From TrEMBL:
Domain of life: Bacteria
InterPro entries cross-referenced by the UniProt entry: KAP_P-loop, P-loop_NTPase
SUPFAM superfamilies with a match to the protein in the record: P-loop containing nucleoside triphosphate hydrolases
Residues annotated as domain KAP NTPase: 16-207
This protein's name: KAP NTPase domain-containing protein
Signal peptide feature range: none
UniProt xrefs under Pfam families: KAP_NTPase
Gene3D superfamilies on file: P-loop containing nucleotide triphosphate hydrolases
Transmembrane segments annotated in the record for this chain: none
Length: 564
């Protein structure tokens, strides 16, 4: 049964003259009470409710049937209450007024309580007031949360009494799944005897979102509605919490890029779902450690059906991995304290990354002029490319700079390139490693001689803090080297090689020895490589001659140790 069908049945129930009992059940938080209240208020305002008197009673906290009867009387309101902007709640004064009316009526009729003040013996008067409960609608909520001292059969018996003897229509709102085993069995047995209309309220995610977020005219409401639907959240209480959380985040991050706001909303909705509905959402640990491409490398291992389901949900939700901003958002939701300093710090960092992303996109767009047609537009392309290099230097890799400079030269637009390269170098505040480059990284595949010279000159302005041990280790780790690396190593003597090997221990020792002897296995080794290899062998032979155990240690590196 769709939610619209359920609503239509409730509307018919409210208009009906017959004295009926209606049960509206559903999971916790799906909007049973909200939907009932909304339809009830609309019907009272349209004057279509029969009969036009109403009482709402939560069974939570009530210990006896006498408490229930008293609560029915205390919470009864007339139709006029629904004409107010907010529902009129039962108060001491409103109950006293009704008691005064009853006292006046009883004095006139039988003189039973002549001379007794309205508030004297309040409990007894209110209990007696239940006798006046008739011709009205009574709504009982939280049946599954009632006290153990209150028997379910007694409550259902009271519903029957109200309907058959008091000319009332009765509504029962409950989460039937939350009833204890014995109560659930009793409820099922007696349901057909007591309830005339049995409805199950089970909205889809889109229906729940429509209930919780009817107005989607702001970025906040649009995004929360969209994300809640994607996460298939059917609990409107959770959606209300997400609206509040995202509203607070929006307040803290006012003025930031809309993409940052959307990311915080996106992550907050997922985190909130996991925190408030842990039995239905992916576990929070799985979210924070999520690696969307791990299965590409075959390291996912055996997964349970539930884990696969959660992984698929995260994939549909397009959640990749939690960054610094996401982790701060999670901490805010979990603690309830919104650390504005940390949120803005991470938002600032993300702003920088987004700016680089935008610059990279702008640079790529210029190259679309080159790749996108066979038009004779070299001049326009060259002009745009030069300007883009100046504007977007922070996002342009060394390899892309080199390729761009080489292309401009081939097109005959070499004028001003020295200044262009200088502007690129001067605009970046990278450390020495950037200018020296990583020989195995495609981002550093520079071939243009002018770019190479400019990078070398920039690298030369930094103090050389490399060590022989560190460079040797890097060769093995990266399986690559540059001419600058060879030059640095060859500057060292065999004594330096000896000292580095003697100082290294454990795994570092293995890396240093392999790094310094790496070029012995190069078939077309140049003179510098041969020089490095000779120094390494000499140092190892010297170590091997120091003791019998060192001789054995050195020989395992395929180095022959001559007799001392």
């Amino acid at each position: 049964m769709s939610t619209e069908q359920v609503k239509n049945e409730i509307r018919r129930f409210l208009k009906a003259e017959d004295k009926l009992a209606l049960c509206l059940s559903g999971k916790w938080g799906v909007g049973k009470t909200h939907t009932w209240d909304t339809l009830l208020t609309a019907a009272f305002k349209d004057a279509t409710v029969r009969p036009p008197r109403y009482a709402y009673v939560s069974l939570f906290g009530l210990e006896t049937l006498s408490d229930v009867r008293r609560s029915v009387f205390e919470n009864t309101v007339e139709a006029a209450a629904f004409s107010e902007k907010e529902r009129l709640e039962a108060t001491f004064s409103s109950v006293s007024e009704r008691l005064a009316q009853l006292s006046s009526k009883w004095r006139a009729g039988i003189g039973m309580i002549r001379g007794i003040p309205v508030v004297a013996d309040y409990g007894g008067l209110v209990e007696a007031g239940f006798l006046d409960v008739r011709n009205q609608i009574v709504c009982f909520d939280d049946l599954e949360r009632m006290s153990d001292s209150l028997d379910l059969k007694d409550v259902l018996g009271l519903i029957t009494f109200l309907k058959e003897k008091k000319n009332c229509k009765v509504v029962l709102l409950l989460n039937s799944e939350a009833l204890e085993e014995q109560n659930a069995e009793n409820f099922r047995v007696q349901l057909e005897k007591v309830i005339d209309i049995n409805l199950t309220f089970a909205p889809t995610a889109s229906e729940a979102v429509a209930i919780a977020v009817p107005d989607r005219t702001t970025l906040l409401t649009q995004m929360v509605a969209d994300y809640a639907a994607k996460l298939e959240i059917t609990n409107i209480r959770t959606i209300f919490k997400l609206l509040r959380i995202c509203g607070r985040l929006e307040e803290v991050l006012e003025g930031y890029d809309e993409r940052i706001i959307k990311q915080t909303f996106h992550s907050a909705c997922l985190f909130g779902f996991a925190i408030y509905q842990p039995t239905e959402a992916p576990p929070i640990d799985a979210i924070l450690k999520h690696r969307p491409y791990a299965d590409f490398f075959g390291d996912e291992g055996e997964r349970t059906p539930e884990e696969i389901q959660h992984s698929e949900l995260l994939k549909r939700y397009e959640f990749l991995t939690a960054d610094g901003l996401d982790l701060v958002v999670f901490d805010c939701i979990r603690s309830g304290f919104y650390d504005e300093v940390s949120l803005r710090r991470e938002a600032d960092a993300l702003t920088g990354r987004l700016e680089l992303k935008d610059q990279d996109a702008a640079f790529s767009k210029v190259w679309d002029i080159y790749h996108g047609s066979f038009d004779d537009n070299a001049d326009a392309f060259a002009t745009e490319l030069k300007q883009s290099i100046r504007d977007n230097a922070a996002a342009i890799s060394p390899a892309n700079l080199s390729a761009s400079i080489a292309t401009l030269k081939k097109l005959g637009h070499g004028d001003g390139l020295d200044d262009l390269i200088k502007d690129y170098v001067d605009s970046r505040d990278d450390g020495k490693d950037f200018w020296v480059g990583d020989p195995v990284s495609p981002r550093f595949n520079i071939e243009d001689p002018d770019v190479i010279a400019a990078f070398a000159a920039k690298a030369g302005t930094f103090a050389d803090d490399r060590t022989l041990k560190g460079v040797a280790t890097a060769i093995v780790r990266d399986r690559g080297w540059s001419e600058d690396t060879l030059e640095f190593i060859d500057k060292h003597s065999a004594d330096d090689f000896y000292a580095a090997m003697k100082a290294a221990k454990d795994e570092e020792l293995r890396l240093v020895v392999y790094g310094l002897t790496y070029f012995r296995n190069i078939g077309n080794a140049d003179e510098r490589m041969k020089s490095i290899s000779a120094k390494a062998v000499s140092a190892l032979q010297r170590i091997g001659q120091e003791s019998a155990i060192n001789r054995l240690r050195v020989e395992k590196f395929s180095v022959v140790v001559p007799q001392a």
